[in-house]
């Protein structure tokens, strides 16, 4: 089994009100030196079977057509190593 991570972020030119709200709150919470915050989404997909170029292309298609609004969002697709759970 493989894990594929799709990270979706607003494009840099798109206003991020949630990120701005977090950024404004940080100094009040004692966190200094953070000049910008952007909020995004992370999808972790567990893939059964081999993770070949065809499977990755299908996941890219899934991200582009369903997980991200490509008009206002960018996304990245990366394969992440799955660590075995203790006791298994």
From TrEMBL:
Give the source's domain of life in one word: Bacteria
Show the GO MF annotations: ATP binding; phosphoribosylformylglycinamidine synthase activity
Recorded catalytic reaction(s): these are: N(2)-formyl-N(1)-(5-phospho-beta-D-ribosyl)glycinamide + L-glutamine + ATP + H2O = 2-formamido-N(1)-(5-O-phospho-beta-D-ribosyl)acetamidine + L-glutamate + ADP + phosphate + H(+)
The pathway to which it is assigned is: Purine metabolism; IMP biosynthesis via de novo pathway; 5-amino-1-(5-phospho-D-ribosyl)imidazole from N(2)-formyl-N(1)-(5-phospho-D-ribosyl)glycinamide: step 1/2
Which principal EC class is assigned to this enzyme?
Answer: ligase
Relate the protein's function as given in its record.
Part of the phosphoribosylformylglycinamidine synthase complex involved in the purines biosynthetic pathway. Catalyzes the ATP-dependent conversion of formylglycinamide ribonucleotide (FGAR) and glutamine to yield formylglycinamidine ribonucleotide (FGAM) and glutamate. The FGAM synthase complex is composed of three subunits. PurQ produces an ammonia molecule by converting glutamine to glutamate. PurL transfers the ammonia molecule to FGAR to form FGAM in an ATP-dependent manner.
Query: What is the protein named?
Result: Phosphoribosylformylglycinamidine synthase subunit PurS
